[in-house]
Write a structure and sequence with these properties.
The structure is a homodimer.
Chain A: H1 2-6, H2 16-63, H3 70-100, H4 105-119, H5 121-129, H6 135-158, H7 163-195, H8 200-223, H9 226-235, H10 238-252, H11 264-317, H12 323-331, H13 338-341, H14 344-376, H15 379-395, H16 399-413, H17 417-431
Helix pairs in contact in A: 2-3, 2-6, 2-7, 2-11, 2-14, 4-6, 6-7, 7-8, 7-11, 7-14, 9-11, 10-11, 12-14, 15-16, 15-17, 16-17
């Protein structure tokens, strides 16, 4: 009914009930959108997963002067390309929605950055194959592209308006973020172990990456549900971590220059790959839960809408105009309305519409409150991005370079990256 | 070009440049939307203005037992109805946009409340004509309807994403809010003067309304431009205020029960009407400026878009793929890329796209910062609305009753309304 009423209609006046319905419809459309968004996020997660493997292998390849992982790399690139196709397919599915949504200005821009990175990936792969690029430059090229893909997920998370769904998105982005830090640790470690030694910078970087993981995963835990946490406990089991800690110890014991057995490269790569694959499984389960939750919330909201449409149609049919009633609503507390108290039906009718509008207002307000909690969990990353953008502006540098500068300061001063970012922002406020 | 590219297209991949354009388009659509929104706000301002006059006159009419303003009321109702038609026309113009925008869930609901109030206005007018409603109940009925209309403007202001425009919206809503408090003061005063005396409650209410105006107008001043402030100074001239202060004194000197000359009712009504009409003129000028600003920003943004489209097309035509360049972007800081430094053209090309994306990210981030400042100015009202909704929920009362309770506590304790609201929220957090 309301769709018709809400399409512009010269001879007809806008009605309260239609706008109430339209408000509910608006919520429904949002939930529909996040069903699609979930698929996009999953495809990004899969693409990132393949790029991470490719990055790790590329660095074993380059670090070993092309002796290791030559064939593996070819297969990995194939599956990366398959996942890129899947990502671009999901993007095509949702882009009509995205370009129509006034809220997606930033999301669209982050997609532009991500796509721009993917467009130039073939050239990088060629250079790796010809060993005409340094291992560090190759790592950085992959890191930058994956960071742009993660930014898309962060921007997507910030457009979620349903708090229960927003919470899961926050768990998701932090899991993906932590997983990427683990992926970078795998790549850095692969480089060192395949070379047979770690210099100071490389050890520092690995320690920094461990610290970054210990920032991201707790946020994931805070927003994850029981089933997720069970998997998480399992992932954090003893035996596995003893081996990991041993190898981390070798990688981080700065100052030693004795050569390491280069076979450790395979052990390290296998171990870290097992870890990252487990994180990937948790990621997939999380996406499943996210999908289920979206469908659940959508069904809920649609039933509520149907219920209220029926209610309001029955009210329309009752033939009573809500007029006398609203007087009761607006003045029964202190006003002289004795002459209306008798009108039971009319009163019920006016109350209903009135209450529905107020219930909706109340619900929307509570939602926005819970939503704030979920959004605050994304602030660390916002702080970091703001600091990066300010450095870019003040020093006329690329965002990759700005990220590097922040990482370096954090390493040199042994402080958390977000702390450094925060003080950069404070400094810049003073410089303004 | 990009519109075509961005319509789903099986055989074609999403391109970075198209998403960059889409992000700019998204901004453009937002600015277009606020041009329409400005018209809607103007029509709401006009409707509120007429309802305020009607409310004032109705209370002289009821307060004088039907002796005064009988004809005037008929004319005023006619012009109210004309403005209601204009408002509903503007609403019809924009409703397609609104119902498509995922961000307007709350706005649509506030429109439902506003329309619901207007639908029952004829019944109220009938009761006033038959003097079958108390003056207090009549005032409350108008107050509630006008509050719902103002809520629409507040909700609209919160959907603005362009900071310069958001600032003007903040000035606008606070001007309208202050003007409404002045309108309520006119109505309350008209009631007292036409009765010939003010009881304690009525005097308290007037003092409270003066306090509320002194909260709203400073926020308007903070966000108003020079031309606006000049008009504002003119409005606050001496002679006018001496007369107003004298009458306010009579109205607020609680405890005196000597009868007042009922002719003061006309003097009060004329004076307050002059004041409110001046506020209305400032409101109209503000709307003009708002409209001009929207058009200005829109033209700016469209030119920027055209410029970048041309730039990117010329880059396409250059036939250079951006591939080698991004390597330069991503690794020139620390990576071994000497073999690419020669590729000047390609480098310029990749840099351009890359820089455009980063410029857009930087701009969007700065905007969101400035926007926060404007939004914070809307917080007082948010606090109030949250407190009202919590009272409604905890006591199962109407929002009108909740507003009354807050007003009463503020009056009894001589505290600001927002202070009371804030402590209500704190209390409720404890009760949870």
């Amino acid at each position: 009914m309301s769709a018709a009423r809400l399409s512009p209609h010269p001879h007809q006046r806008p009605r309260a009930t239609d706008y109430l319905i339209a408000s509910k419809r608006c919520e429904l459309r949002n939930l529909e959108r996040f069903l699609q968004m979930g698929k996009l996020v999953l495809s990004i997660g899969n693409l990132i997963h393949e790029l991470q493997r490719e990055r790790g292998a590329s660095n074993v390849f380059l670090g070993s002067g092309g002796r290791r992982f030559s064939e593996e790399l070819v297969e990995m690139i194939d599956s990366s390309l398959r996942q890129q196709d899947a990502f671009e397919h999901e993007l095509m599915e949702i882009q009509g929605e995205l370009t129509q949504d006034p809220a997606s200005t930033s999301l669209l821009n982050s997609l532009a950055a991500a796509l721009h990175g993917l467009e130039s990936l073939p050239a990088i792969r060629q250079q790796i194959r010809h060993q005409s690029i340094s291992a560090e430059a190759a790592i950085d090229a992959y890191i930058e592209r994956i960071r742009h893909l993660l930014t898309v997920v962060f921007e997507a998370a910030e457009t979620v308006v349903d708090p229960t769904i927003a919470g899961m998105m926050v768990a998701m982005v932090n899991l993906m973020q932590g997983k990427e830090m683990a992926g970078q640790e795998r790549a850095a470690g692969s480089l060192g172990f395949s070379r047979g030694h770690f210099d100071h910078a490389l050890s520092q970087r690995i320690m920094h990456l461990i610290d970054a993981q210990e920032r991201a995963f707790p946020v994931f835990e805070r927003f994850a549900d029981e089933e997720m946490l069970a998997l998480w406990k399992q992932h954090n089991r003893e035996d596995f971590w003893q081996e990991l800690k041993y190898l981390r110890g070798l990688a981080c014991s700065v100052g030693r220059y004795r050569e390491l057995d280069t076979d450790l490269a395979d052990q390290w790569f296998d171990l870290m790959t097992r870890r990252i694959d487990e994180l990937k499984n948790i990621e997939c389960l999380l996406e499943e839960h996210f999908h289920r939750r979206c469908i659940g919330r959508y069904t809920e909201a649609r039933n509520a809408l149907t219920h209220e449409q029926n209610l309001m149609e029955s009210l329309d049919d009752s033939g009573h105009s809500p007029d006398p009633v609203l007087v009761v609503c607006s003045s029964e507390n202190g006003g002289d309305t004795s002459q209306y108290r008798s009108d039971g039906v009319g009163r019920k009718l006016g109350r209903s519409v009135f209450d529905l509008v107020q219930q909706q207002a109340l619900r929307l307000d509570q939602l926005s409150g819970e939503l704030r909690i979920a959004r605050e969990a994304l602030d660390d990353r916002r702080t970091l991005e703001k600091a990066v953008l300010l450095l870019m502006k003040h020093q006329q540098i690329s965002d990759d370079e700005a990220h590097k500068q922040l990482r370096k300061v954090a390493m040199d001063q042994g402080r958390k990256l977000t702390e450094v970012a925060r003080s950069v922002l404070e400094m810049t406020d003073l410089l303004r």
